[in-house]
Design goal:
With 439 residues, this protein is α+β, with helices and mostly antiparallel strands. It folds into three domains: 9-63, no CATH class; 109-319, Oxidoreductase, molybdopterin-binding domain (Sulfite Oxidase, Chain A, domain 2); 326-438, Immunoglobulin-like (Sandwich). It contains seven helices and 24 strands. The chain has helices at residues 3-15, 22-26, 40-50, 67-70, 146-152, 196-203, 236-239, and strands spanning 86-90, 93-96, 114-115, 130-134, 142-145, 155-163, 186-195, 211-216, 233-235, 245-250, 253-254, 264-266, 279-285, 300-302, 317-319, 326-331, 336-339, 344-351, 357-363, 371-372, 374-375, 385-391, 397-407, 431-438. The chain is globular and about 70 Å long. The structure holds the ligand Nc1nc2c(c(=O)[nH]1)N[C@H]1C(S)=C(S)[C@@H](COP(=O)(O)O)O[C@H]1N2 and molybdenum atom.
């Protein structure tokens, strides 16, 4: 095929999107990937996602999502993932979980969302995988094999909620660039591993330590071998918390490949971007960690509220250090219909980075009045909590069920969108579902 012909496909889509499969167009990845054809790194990512080598990939237009991933019926699931996950971006792979697939107490491994910034490592060898701890504020540099980590330190299992900082981004206006997450970049699993602090203490933490940063074995989408995909971190106090884990198991099984196999950090109550996957190195820093996606506008919000659409200089952006109180209705699926006088059971999850959720309420009159839900306690700090209620509706018609969680500090979710920010982080507006009551 000639270059010109390839370009023709692009132009057709660019000029007349309706001529193309509408859904395919809607699901296009970031605008910056629309031009040019697949790079080597992207090709690897694509094969990984399809679970098979893409034959003739050199002819596949860069702006297009493979048909296998583009429709609402995805014929082949992502490797190790439930077919109901919604793929938002295929290079790198990002997929969210619809609310009704988050109804289990703990999110099953195949339903846990995926947020990749690069390409996961291939052919992971457990016998040669190592974790190195170093940095200005480390008393020494020390490297552990997986077997050493498992033998030397006390294992722990904790239920920890991971939520991407950009979850809910889709709602912001003006829109923010990046994956247009709806509600599903969240999950809560039982993670088994060891405490990060035990390892840090074994190495020795100097008194001037302020931050830890991670490095993982994923590779950059550009195919450049030496380019770090993402290297974020947490303040030393967060690293030293009893719930901060280096994990190798998720719900009693090895962590799925797309979620960081064989080793990852798990920081509950923090933007999940801090929870480094395919973990190979931790640096103990005497300054705020400055790896890729730690600086500039990434995972930061304006230090002071700004009007929607404002350009905010880097120095007025502050690092996100915790996720806001939030909840999700996981049953029924939006659009449920029931008969008059039938009670509607609802279920959902609520989570916070503070001590705990103390109440969840629901409204069927668009927030005018609220009734309380039954709320289960958390298994441990940073685990999500289950709520439920039986709702009766006064008459036939259309309703919405809204849910609103409140934390131990008395902070409740906003009913509408919270503060606009340039990158579209921290949307914790109340979740709602549509209900029809018929005769
Ligand atoms: N090495 C590495 N770690 C990473 C990422 C990544 O791209 N590479 N993505 C981060 C982001 S932004 C999020 S939201 C979580 C997502 O974790 P999950 O894919 O297991 O749901 O992993 C974080 N850790
Ligand atoms: Mo994220």
């Amino acid at each position: 095929m000639h270059k010109k012909d390839k370009k023709g496909i692009h132009e057709l889509y660019a000029e007349d999107p309706l001529a193309a499969d509408k859904q395919l167009w809607d699901r296009e990845p970031l605008p910056n990937t629309r031009r040019g054809f697949l790079k080597k790194g992207a090709l690897t990512a694509m094969s990984l996602v399809l679970g098979a080598k893409m034959v003739h990939a050199e002819h596949f237009p860069a702006g297009m999502i493979p048909a296998a991933l583009a429709g609402s019926d995805q014929p082949f699931a992502l490797p190790g993932k439930h077919p109901g996950l919604i793929v938002l971006n295929d290079r790198p792979i990002n997929a969210e979980t619809p609310p009704e697939l988050l109804d289990d107490k703990l999110t099953p491994n195949d339903r846990f969302f995926v947020r990749n910034n690069g390409i996961p490592p291939e052919n992971v060898d457990l016998s040669t995988w190592t974790l190195t701890i170093e940095g200005e504020s480390a008393a020494q540099t020390k490297t552990y094999t997986l077997a050493e980590l498992k033998q030397k330190f006390t294992p722990v299992t904790l239920q920890l909620t991971l939520e991407c900082g950009g979850n809910g981004r889709k709602e912001f206006n003006p829109p923010a660039k990046g994956n247009q997450w709806s509600t599903g970049a969240v999950g809560c699993a039982a993670w088994t591993g060891i405490r990060l602090r035990d390892v840090l203490e074994d190495v020795g933490v100097k008194s001037d330590a302020v931050y830890v940063g991670y490095y993982g074995k994923d590779t950059h989408i550009s195919g450049q071998a030496d380019k770090v995909v993402i290297s974020r971190g947490v303040p030393i106090d967060k690293a030293m918390e009893a719930e901060s884990l280096i994990a190798w198991e998720m719900n009693g099984k090895p962590i799925p490949m797309l979620n960081g196999y064989p080793l990852r950090l798990v920081f509950g109550g923090y933007p999940a971007s801090a929870s480094g996957k395919w973990l190979s190195k931790i640096v103990i820093r005497n300054q705020v960690h400055d790896g890729p996606k730690m600086t500039g506008q990434s995972y930061r919000v304006p230090c002071k509220p700004v009007a929607p659409g404002t350009k905010v200089p880097d120095e007025e952006m502050c690092i996100i250090e915790g996720m806001p109180v939030k909840s999700l209705i996981t049953f029924p699926k939006t659009g449920a219909t029931l008969r008059q006088r039938q009670a509607l059971p609802i279920r959902g999850k609520a989570w916070t980075s503070t001590e705990k959720i103390t109440r969840v309420d629901y409204s069927i009159d668009f927030g005018a009045t609220w009734q309380s839900c039954t709320l289960e306690p958390a298994a441990n700090r940073y685990a999500w909590q289950q709520f439920s209620a039986d709702i009766r509706f006064p008459e036939i018609g259309y309703y919405e069920v809204w849910a609103r969680a409140t934390d131990a500090n008395g902070i409740a979710q906003p009913m509408l969108l919270p503060g606009w920010n340039p990158r579209g982080y921290l949307n914790n507006a109340c979740h709602r579902i549509a209900i029809k009551v018929t005769a």
